[in-house]
TrEMBL record:
The chain crosses the membrane at residues 45-72, 79-99, 139-159, 180-197, 203-236, 248-268, 342-363, 383-400. It is a multi-pass membrane protein. It is found in: Membrane. Keywords: Membrane, Transmembrane, Transmembrane helix. GO terms for cellular component: membrane. It comes from Desulfofervidus auxilii. Residues 205-358 form the O-antigen ligase-related domain. This is Polymerase.
């Protein structure tokens, strides 16, 4: 029964974008945070080849439809040339299948690496004009509001989505708090940029709404990414040199302030420290060693050291191959990933792959900054600045989490705004010349 339902969903997810690509891309942006587990439950398909989760099933269908759409579009080659460095990175990662531990796990990882540039190209083709892109905005915001209402209803019904010991962390059913917070972060950043350029109070209200629910999951890296991205936003829009200097120096004051909050508010103390009852703000001055020992990294530092020793040190230049770390942890422990994209890339694709990854994102940031500086169209500026903030957040999240894994909750929005900026700028130039 569940397999028949899964096949039906697969067919729908392939036919929908082929028949009405614009509506499908809006549907994806509206339902980004909702997992297919709502329909089929928390089950794994095709366990004989490592297993495919409902989210992976959805990704597989979207990628098949996307490849068909791109194959039938004349502009695909020219658009692909614009992101050639990203595609070269994917090519290098694919070559690592030659020396990887397990081809199935390697292919699963390659699929997640390929999804962002694929989605970027599909967005540019499915939404070719500024008018079409503007129509899409409301679906992005409505999706966020819908997800929040869904989470509140689930909480009111006693469906505790997730807990960290005794700390309730807000999210929706079938979704961990981290990807929920990443999704809210994207909407928060888009809201504040929309308010800055469109000057509509509704965007300011949405900014406060989404920022609250961005913090409620208590995902530390998301809170850090939010603060840093907002500082980047203020630095970019402010012309006053004194204010810019203050923004650059603000981390000096924000870090002590964040430590003060973490040691003063009980719910944050429980999230931040192993034994919160023995830690206070004065501890950092009186006994800094104890303070560091009590920091709760959720086992990340131990896992990083182990992964680097086992996978990176053997082949530091090119790594142990795509999917190597996940294959090891799933085979040995049934689950587990290296909670840092940079550590995972070093382990699997080596120094070459990790450096390549960072360069690709820096090139996107450079492109978005150039578009933001050069364009005279407010709409193009809005998308370019949103993309800058989202790309910045993505790089920050990758420090302690696996940003690549969250295709529909994070990557899709990062590259949607990037695609919108590219497309609007291209249309602007075609009109001018």
């Amino acid at each position: 029964m569940y397999y028949l339902l899964a096949i039906l969903l697969l067919v729908i997810f392939i036919l929908f974008p082929l028949l009405v690509p614009q509506s499908f891309m809006r549907f994806l942006l509206f339902t980004g945070a909702i997992s297919l587990s709502f329909i089929v439950g928390e089950r794994t398909f095709l366990t004989s080849i490592g297993g495919i989760s409902p989210t992976a099933f959805k990704l597989f269908a979207v990628m098949i439809a996307g490849i068909i759409i791109l194959g039938a579009e004349k502009r695909t080659i020219n658009l692909a040339i614009n992101i050639k460095f990203h595609l070269l990175f994917i090519t290098y990662a694919t070559l690592s299948l030659i020396w990887c531990e397990d081809v199935i796990y390697g292919l699963r990882n390659i699929a997640k690496l390929l999804a962002p540039p694929l989605l970027l190209l599909i967005f540019q083709i499915a939404l070719p004009s500024e008018q079409e892109i503007r129509k899409t905005e409301k679906w992005i915001f409505l999706g966020g509001i819908f997800i929040i209402i869904l989470g509140i209803i689930a909480d009111a019904l006693g469906l505790k989505p997730s807990q960290y010991h005794s700390i309730p962390r807000f999210t929706i059913p079938h979704l961990n708090p981290s990807p929920f917070s990443f999704y809210m972060l994207m909407l928060t950043l888009f809201s504040i940029v929309s308010f800055y350029y469109d000057r509509k109070n509704i965007y300011l209200l949405l900014f406060f709404l989404f920022s609250i629910f961005c913090v409620l999951p208590l995902t530390r890296i998301t809170i850090g990414a939010l603060l840093i991205s907002l500082m980047v936003f203020l630095v970019l829009i402010t012309r006053n040199k004194i204010i810019k200097t203050i923004m650059f120096l603000s981390p000096i004051f924000l870090i002590p302030f964040f430590i003060f909050l973490s040691t003063s508010i009980s719910i944050l103390k429980e999230r931040m420290f192993l034994n919160p009852e023995i830690v206070s703000f004065s501890t950092i001055f009186q006994n800094p060693k104890l303070f560091l020992e009590q920091l709760n990294t959720s086992g990340r530092t131990t896992l990083w050291s182990f992964a680097l020793e086992k996978f990176f040190q053997k082949n530091p230049l090119w790594g142990s191959g795509a999917g190597a770390t996940q294959h090891f942890f799933y085979e040995k422990f049934g689950r587990g990933v290296v909670h840092s994209e940079y550590i995972r890339l070093l382990c699997e694709l080596g120094i070459i792959g990790c450096t390549f990854f960072i360069i690709v994102f820096l090139l996107y940031l450079a492109d978005m900054y150039k578009i933001w500086q050069r364009t005279k169209e407010i709409t193009t500026k809005k998308y370019a600045l949103t993309a800058i903030l989202c790309l910045t957040s993505y790089l920050i999240i990758s420090i302690t989490d696996n940003a690549i894994d969250y295709v529909f909750h994070l990557s899709m929005y990062v590259f949607a705004f990037t695609a919108f900026a590219y497309q609007c700028y291209e249309q602007e130039n075609s009109i001018l010349y």
